[in-house]
């Protein structure tokens, strides 16, 4: 098989990955809290046909540049674009938009998952849950943390049925009215993540902190909204998708043309090989 055909195959595979990513971005154009991704392409292995050489003035011989043949392209990275999107008002008083940095924290077994989607409500037992019924974490009680939260735990309102007009404030405070008195019941926490680009997407608008997200010098810390470089909350709103349709459609055309050009390379290489085979007949 000719080198040109190998190059065409690698190009087709690379641009197929690009189309897959673009398709996912467009499919989630109306998904709350969605962060679009991009693909970067790089060239791959080169075969050196002739190495470079230095000039030799004593023998009146000039230098020579290397002669190399490449073997195509590859999709090198798929990066999540963590730019903030606009605010979409919902009219639901328990929906929360993070006006700045930070992620909501929900319980996942013995660990945490992180999300930018603050679609909250309470279950029958008084647990604060998100739209997927995962437990939302923070602190319980009326005492407001002044710094980092040492223990981020699921929020639960004891005797939930006895409270009315439960609301969420811009500082994450959950308040409710009981016996004519407004009481603070707990505080929602936001995670300050050193390297958000290192988060692993889990589906359902969740992210998981695995490798390359934090270290001992820069750990993940938890604060009430507006503290520790985290943004404050805006209620009755959710974060919109950051997919830019104009950009995605333009990139789709570019990737499609790249895909078509590489399939043409495969076709031409095949025709050349067929010509060589037919020479013997």
From TrEMBL:
<keyword id="KW-0975">Bacterial flagellum</keyword>
<dbReference type="GO" id="GO:0005829">
    <property type="term" value="C:cytosol"/>
</dbReference>
<dbReference type="InterPro" id="IPR019776">
    <property type="entry name" value="Flagellar_basal_body_rod_CS"/>
</dbReference>
<keyword id="KW-0282">Flagellum</keyword>
<dbReference type="Pfam" id="PF00460">
    <property type="entry name" value="Flg_bb_rod"/>
</dbReference>
<feature type="domain" description="Flagellar basal-body/hook protein C-terminal">
    <location>
        <begin position="236"/>
        <end position="279"/>
    </location>
</feature>
<dbReference type="InterPro" id="IPR001444">
    <property type="entry name" value="Flag_bb_rod_N"/>
</dbReference>
<dbReference type="InterPro" id="IPR010930">
    <property type="entry name" value="Flg_bb/hook_C_dom"/>
</dbReference>
<dbReference type="InterPro" id="IPR037925">
    <property type="entry name" value="FlgE/F/G-like"/>
</dbReference>
<protein>
    <recommendedName>
        <fullName>Flagellar hook protein FlgE</fullName>
    </recommendedName>
</protein>
<dbReference type="Pfam" id="PF06429">
    <property type="entry name" value="Flg_bbr_C"/>
</dbReference>
<keyword id="KW-0969">Cilium</keyword>
<dbReference type="GO" id="GO:0009424">
    <property type="term" value="C:bacterial-type flagellum hook"/>
</dbReference>
<dbReference type="InterPro" id="IPR020013">
    <property type="entry name" value="Flagellar_FlgE/F/G"/>
</dbReference>
<feature type="domain" description="Flagellar basal body rod protein N-terminal">
    <location>
        <begin position="5"/>
        <end position="35"/>
    </location>
</feature>
<dbReference type="Pfam" id="PF22692">
    <property type="entry name" value="LlgE_F_G_D1"/>
</dbReference>
<comment type="function">
    <text>A flexible structure which links the flagellar filament to the drive apparatus in the basal body.</text>
</comment>
<comment type="similarity">
    <text>Belongs to the flagella basal body rod proteins family.</text>
</comment>
<dbReference type="InterPro" id="IPR053967">
    <property type="entry name" value="LlgE_F_G-like_D1"/>
</dbReference>
<feature type="domain" description="Flagellar hook protein FlgE/F/G-like D1">
    <location>
        <begin position="98"/>
        <end position="175"/>
    </location>
</feature>
<keyword id="KW-0966">Cell projection</keyword>
<dbReference type="GO" id="GO:0071978">
    <property type="term" value="P:bacterial-type flagellum-dependent swarming motility"/>
</dbReference>
<dbReference type="GO" id="GO:0009425">
    <property type="term" value="C:bacterial-type flagellum basal body"/>
</dbReference>
């Amino acid at each position: 098989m000719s080198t040109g055909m190998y190059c065409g195959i690698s190009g087709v595979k690379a641009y197929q990955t690009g189309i897959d990513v673009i398709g996912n971005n467009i499919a989630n154009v109306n998904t709350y809290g969605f962060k679009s991704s991009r693909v970067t392409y790089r060239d791959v292995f080169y075969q050196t046909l002739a190495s470079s050489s230095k000039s030799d003035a004593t023998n009146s011989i000039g230098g020579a540049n290397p002669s190399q043949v490449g073997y195509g392209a590859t999709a090198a990275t798929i990066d999540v674009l963590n730019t903030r999107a606009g605010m979409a008002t919902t009219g639901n008083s328990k929906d929360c938009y993070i006006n700045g940095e930070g992620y909501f924290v929900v319980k996942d077994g013995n660990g945490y998952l992180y999300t930018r989607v603050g679609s909250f409500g309470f279950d029958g037992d008084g647990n604060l849950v998100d739209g997927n019924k995962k437990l939302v974490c923070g602190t319980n009680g009326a005492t407001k943390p002044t710094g980092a939260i040492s223990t981020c735990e699921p929020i639960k309102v004891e005797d939930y049925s006895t409270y009315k007009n439960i609301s969420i404030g811009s500082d994450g405070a959950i308040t409710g009215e009981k016996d004519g008195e407004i009481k603070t019941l707990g505080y929602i926490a936001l995670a300050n993540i050193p390297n958000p680009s290192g988060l692993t997407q889990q589906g359902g608008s969740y992210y998981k902190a695995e490798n390359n997200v934090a270290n001992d010098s820069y750990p993940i810390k938890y604060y009430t909204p507006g503290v520790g470089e985290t943004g404050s909350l805006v209620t009755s709103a959710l974060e919109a998708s950051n997919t830019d349709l104009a950009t995605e459609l333009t990139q789709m055309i570019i990737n499609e043309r790249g895909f078509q050009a590489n399939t043409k390379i495969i076709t031409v290489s095949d025709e050349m090989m067929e010509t060589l085979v037919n020479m013997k007949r």
